[in-house]
Every structure is written in C-alpha cells, then in structure tokens.
C-alpha cells in the first residue's frame, strides 16, 4: 500500500460541474496536506493546503480533511476547461524528516 | 509566493558530458529540494538541503550530486550524463514553518541525453 493514494483517473466532468478529487493516506501522524495542480509538461503549482479537520474554501476550490478516516479531498466548483490538469496530493508528518509524501496524481478533464 | 528560477529550461547533450542544472531562489528559504519526474509519472525526491552546507540524498537513488554554498543557490551536477538520465528535473524551495511549510517549484529543466 502506498503512503498516499489517489485514483489516477482520468476523471471527466462537463464544464460547470463540480469535480471531486480524493486522496487517502496511511500515516495517522500526518499533519499537513497540500493540493498541487500540474499541467502537462509544467511544474506543480500549489492550489491550497489544509491542516485542520473540516473544510477550507478558496474561490472555486474547497479542501476537505477528515483525519479520523484519513482522507483529504479537493472540490472544484464550476469546473472550467482550464482546470484540466493532473492534481497531486501531498502529505507531511512530523517524522520522516518532514518531507512531503506525494501521490501519483489524478488526471482531470473538463469537457466544454 | 517564492521566486525560484531554473536554468537551462531545456538541454540536449551527448553521453559522457558533464552538466550542471542551476536553481536559485530569492526568498531566503532554507529548505530546497530536487525532484525528478518522467512524463506522466510521479515525483521522485533525489536531493534536499535544509540550509547552507547541508545536503542529503532523497528517496530515489541518483548519480547526480548537489551543493549548497549559498542559501539562494542549489545546483545539481551530473559528472557523466547517460541516456538513462533523460528526465525532467524540478527544483523547489519551502517556506518556513516545519510541517506547515509550502513547496514552490521552479519551471523545471528538461534534460535529454543522446
């Protein structure tokens, strides 16, 4: 079992719909959680991070964290074709020298 | 947001050549990282540094070496490039804050070894 797991997709949604991306992690000591977006051939860019249980909203993006169930999700409202990319989940705990553990990413396609 | 720069963006070289990929950041971040990523594949940490004169190997074995003589500069060197080194190399720096620090990436250096 990988430490951080994501469905590789592709996840296909119509323009204007809500895209829901999920990530599970194995280490209960994990303390911080990050979502990155990576367009093909480009480097990852930070979308948002979350540290506390519950929801965190930033524009069209909402991160949801449930530490008891060990999952973190990213919701994208009013999806646009420009949201088509791979979304990477990254997790950090206090151990492991505080390095980020990366998921393989979920490919999202938003269809016009 | 960090300003982090990588050069060259693209490099095509012959087998056996020595190359250095440059990475610089202007935000004074202590923590810097080198990742390797093949198309459609996961990120692999190959080197990291938590400050000047501190360097560590990452999770993926790499024949490359790094140095950290200045806070802002974290170059990666391959003494003798081989076709197996063909990949995208991504440099990142991290804001302070321990577990809460965020990584910001440069635009990457795409290396092709013929």
Q: Over the alpha carbons, how many angstroms does the gyration radius of chain B reach? A: 13 Å
Order of helices and strands of chain A: EEEEEEEEEEE
- Tell me the number of strands of chain B: 11
- Low-confidence runs of at least 5 consecutive residues of chain B: none
Q: Quick one: how many beta strands of chain A?
A: 11
Describe what this molecule looks like in 3D.
The complex is a heterodimer of chains A (112) and B (114). Chain A is mainly β. Chain A is 0% helix and 56% strand. Chain A has no helices and eleven strands. In chain A, a hairpin with a 2-residue loop joins strand 6 (54-58) and strand 7. Chain A starts with a strand and ends with a strand. Chain B has 114 residues and is mainly β. Chain B is 0% helix and 48% strand. Chain B is built from no helices and eleven strands. Classes of the chains: A mainly beta (112), B mainly beta (114). Chain A binds chain B through residues 31-32, 34, 41-46, 49, 51, 88, 90, 92-94, 97-100, 102-105, and chain B through 39, 41-43, 45, 48, 56, 58-59, 90, 98-100, 102-108.
Search tags:
heterodimer; A: about 110 residues; mainly beta; six-stranded mixed beta sheet; five-stranded antiparallel beta sheet; globular; B: about 110 residues; seven-stranded mixed beta sheet; four-stranded antiparallel beta sheet; 11 strands; about 50% strand
Layout: helices, strands, pairs:
The complex is a heterodimer of chains A (112) and B (114).
Chain A: E1 4-6, E2 11-14, E3 19-25, E4 30-38, E5 45-50, E6 54-58, E7 61-66, E8 71-76, E9 85-93, E10 101-102, E11 106-111
Chain B: E1 4-7, E2 10-13, E3 19-25, E4 31-37, E5 44-51, E6 54-57, E7 65-66, E8 76-78, E9 87-94, E10 103-105, E11 109-113
Parallel strand pairs in B: 2-11
Antiparallel strand pairs in B: 1-3, 3-8, 4-5, 4-9, 5-6, 7-8, 9-10, 9-11
Question: What's the short version?
Answer:
The complex is a heterodimer of chains A (112) and B (114). Chain A starts with a strand and ends with a strand.
């Amino acid at each position: 079992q990988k430490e951080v797991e994501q469905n590789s997709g592709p996840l296909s949604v119509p323009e204007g719909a809500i895209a829901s991306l999920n990530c599970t992690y194995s280490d209960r000591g994990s303390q911080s959680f990050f979502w990155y977006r990576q367009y093909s051939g480009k480097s990852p860019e930070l979308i948002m991070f979350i540290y506390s249980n519950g929801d965190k909203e930033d524009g069209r993006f909402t991160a949801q964290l449930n530490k008891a169930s060990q999952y973190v999700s990213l919701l994208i409202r009013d999806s646009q074709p420009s949201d088509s990319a791979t979304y990477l989940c990254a997790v950090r705990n206090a151990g492991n020298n505080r390095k980020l553990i990366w998921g393989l990413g979920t490919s999202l396609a938003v269809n016009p | 947001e960090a300003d982090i720069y990588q050069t060259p963006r693209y490099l095509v070289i012959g087998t056996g050549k020595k190359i250095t990929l440059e990475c610089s950041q202007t935000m004074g971040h202590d923590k810097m990282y080198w990742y390797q990523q093949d198309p459609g594949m996961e990120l692999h940490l190959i080197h990291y540094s938590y400050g000047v004169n501190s360097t560590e190997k990452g999770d993926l074995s790499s024949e490359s070496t790094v140095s950290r003589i200045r806070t802002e500069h974290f170059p990666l060197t391959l003494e003798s490039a081989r076709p197996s080194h063909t990949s995208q190399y991504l440099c990142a720096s991290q804001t302070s804050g321990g577990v809460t620090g965020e990584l910001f990436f440069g635009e990457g250096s795409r290396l092709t070894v013929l």
